[in-house]
Amino acid sequence: MERTFLMVKPDGVQRGLIGEVVKRFEQKGFQLVGAKLMQISREKAELHYAEHQGKPFFPGLVDFIISGPVFGMVWEGDQVIALSRTMIGKTNSLDALPGTIRGDYAVHTNLNIIHGSDSPESAQREISNFFSEQELITYTKPI
Ligand code: CMP
């Protein structure tokens, strides 16, 4: 069963969108196996966004992600990595279609509400950056 790391960013938390984001993934049929409100350290933020190190937007991105609490989650389900990226919508705000989270709630590429892992390797790395094994709970649904 595939797992992904999703994070409601500081703008999403401040705008009261945690519940809306969780609702969408629950209703899609994915299973929440871990979640917590976190004020992340600069060190963890730089590790999380390591692939963007050296890009012009990197310093601002790190400053933004540590500027306030984020809501980190681990979700489980068939093809959850690719399907959650579709539900989140494109990074560039001009390409994020209505019906997606970013398309419905974000105007700016920097303030884009939510992050989602883009590959199994990223998911593994991002989950272990923010969650211990003990914080992830596997359980069966009644149906
Ligand atoms: P996220 O999915 O969290 O991954 C990297 C983040 O960098 C992205 O969302 C955007 O919030 C931010 N970002 C800002 N400018 C760019 C850019 N030109 N290309 C990609 N990501 C960008």
From TrEMBL:
Highest taxon of source: Bacteria
GO MF terms held by the record: nucleoside diphosphate kinase activity
Where in the sequence is the active site?
A: H115
Binding positions for ATP per the UniProt entry: K9, F57, R85, T91, R102, N112
EC class:
transferase
* Subcellular locations according to the entry: Cytoplasm
Q: What is the designated name of this protein?
A: Nucleoside diphosphate kinase
